[in-house]
Amino acid sequence: MHPVWAEATTVRAYVRGIEADYRLCALRTSCAFRTVSDDAALVIAGLIPLRELVRERSELAETAQDETTTASARKLAVRARSLANWQNLWANSTKGQWTHRLIPDVGIWTGRKHGEVDFYMTQALSGHGCFRSYLKRFGHEREDGCPSCGRGVMEDAHHVLFECRRFDEERSNLEETFSPERMVPLMIESGRKWEATGKFVAKVLKELRALERVRNEGED
């Protein structure tokens, strides 16, 4: 038997309204800019897609009287299917490609035992933040190049976090080889590594924000 409210999710007008609220919840949970895609925002925030939550509740309601398994076992099985479905959606999404490179596996990310994202970490994970390439894309900068690394080098999240010579010293303080493919796995390894990476990211983003303010003041 389906929950009464589940029928409402078959009406597209209702779904759009609910999805808009759910997107806003993901953006607020992760402290993300509104320009971040739904798919990336949900992953960063660790919020299972709304349709999967609806399916979960419906399936659990239908099997509530099943005495062959325990309620906890049913919940675990249903959640495992949700994660598998979400992983498939994420793997095939054309949105949030930078986020996907950093967080390819939603199960590992959402199943971590420590660590919360904040305003600065979300900028790093989404690529939407105080990076000149992002700011130019949305009309807040005239140039997208890195002011420190020479002509033709774009200042995006990848360059700033992993390549830019301005932050070589800070990057060298991290214990391991730092790359897009290793960043999240390192953070998940321990609370200490999560904290160290978070401090590095925050320092970098704060400096970028300070430089942005200086540029803006110079144009006034």
From TrEMBL:
It comes from the Eukaryota. This is Reverse transcriptase zinc-binding domain-containing protein.
